[in-house]
Amino acid sequence: MTTTVDYADVADLAGRDLGYTDWIEVTQDRVNLFADATDDHQWIHVDPERAADGPFGAPIAHGFLSLSLTVKFWSELFDVTGVSTRVNYGLDKVRFVSPVKVGARIRGGAVIAEVTEVRGGYQFAVDQTIEIEGADKPAVVARGLYRFYA
């Protein structure tokens, strides 16, 4: 469920837990498309037969594919009205905690850690987690930085 707030009300959002998105399946097609886009065709990602005998017992998503989905999940969890521009400003910290096997389902969660006024807008530091359905540990934990300008 998306939390939508007006730009005039964003300054006091630090600490807001936005919950979790719906689950999505990480398919081999998605992994292959990412491999094509990044020219990273390592066999642990794109060769299911060889990967079945590899260290993870199946092909796995690229860590950066999993990380890139934080933007999708963030957009599903949070929106600000009354802004002219939204910017993915970067990351402060990223950890790839557990591999995501092809066929696994993942979802994103987010907590707004900090809201800081910047020239012309606000910057959000957001603690994001990508969970793997049924797993004890998350796939990714990251602090994303996002800016909203009026």
Short characterization:
This protein has helices at 28-38, 43-46, 48-52, 63-77; strands spanning 3-6, 17-20, 24-25, 78-81, 85-96, 105-118, 121-132, 140-149.
Question: Can you tell me about this structure?
Answer:
The chain is built from four helices and eight strands. The protein has one domain: Roll (Thiol Ester Dehydrase, Chain A). It starts with a strand and ends with a strand. It is α+β, with helices and mostly antiparallel strands and 150 residues long. Strands 2, 3, 5, 6, 7 and 8 form a six-stranded antiparallel β-sheet that branches. Strands 1-4 form a two-stranded parallel sheet. The model has no long low-confidence stretch (mean pLDDT 97). Strand 7 (121-132) and strand 8 (140-149) form a beta hairpin. The protein is 23% helix and 41% strand.
Uncertain spans, ≥5 residues at pLDDT below 50? none
Radius of gyration, whole Å = 17 Å
Biggest sheet features: 6 strands, antiparallel
Our count of domains comes out at 1
The CATH topology name reads Thiol Ester Dehydrase, Chain A
Structural class: alpha+beta
The proportion of residues forming helix, as a percent range, comes to 10-25%
Helix-strand pattern: EEEHHHHEEEEE
Number of E-state strands: 8
CATH architecture: Roll
> Which CATH class?
Alpha Beta
The CATH homologous superfamily is named Hotdog Thioesterase
Head-to-tail CA distance between termini: 24 Å
Overall shape: it is elongated
Tally the helices: 4
